[in-house]
Write a structure and sequence with these properties.
By secondary structure, the protein is α+β, with helices and mostly antiparallel strands. The protein has a single domain, classed as Alpha-Beta Plaits, CATH 3.30.70. 39% of the residues lie in helices and 27% in strands. The chain has a four-stranded antiparallel β-sheet, with helices on one face. The protein has a two-stranded antiparallel ribbon with strand order 4-5. Strand 4 and strand 5 form a beta hairpin. GO terms for molecular function: mRNA binding; U1 snRNA binding.
């Protein structure tokens, strides 16, 4: 009985502090990979808009041909919206391709 009580307290602590811990690790910018090479910036933005306000959606392009490389970044107004999009879109099939969504790694200026 005592172990169950301790377990419940741990679960309650996790539920209480989870949003705060999550915001520290999570970014409002997502990295989207394995996109179709025919995807446009506008289509990328429209794909993620149902989950919140998209402030920026951009595909990475080859500098010489200017064709999309098949991956890009989507930035949301809030971390919560980004998390919803991450959970809903990671591993989905879009345009006949299985896409992956990850939290974008941010680099700190030196």
């Amino acid at each position: 009985m005592a172990a169950a009580l301790v377990g419940n307290r741990c679960l309650e602590f996790f539920r209480t502090w989870r949003p705060m811990l999550f915001e520290r690790r999570f970014s409002s910018e997502l990295f989207v990979s394995r996109l179709s090479f025919y995807t446009t910036d506008k289509e990328l933005k429209e794909l993620f808009e149902p989950f919140g306000t998209v402030t920026d959606a951009r595909l990475v392009r080859d500098p010489t041909t200017l064709k999309p490389k098949g991956f890009g970044f989507v930035t949301f107004e809030s971390v919560t919206e980004a998390h919803k999009a991450f959970q809903a879109m990671n591993g989905r099939i879009v345009g006949g391709r299985l896409i992956f969504v990850e939290v974008a790694k941010t680099t700190r200026p030196e």
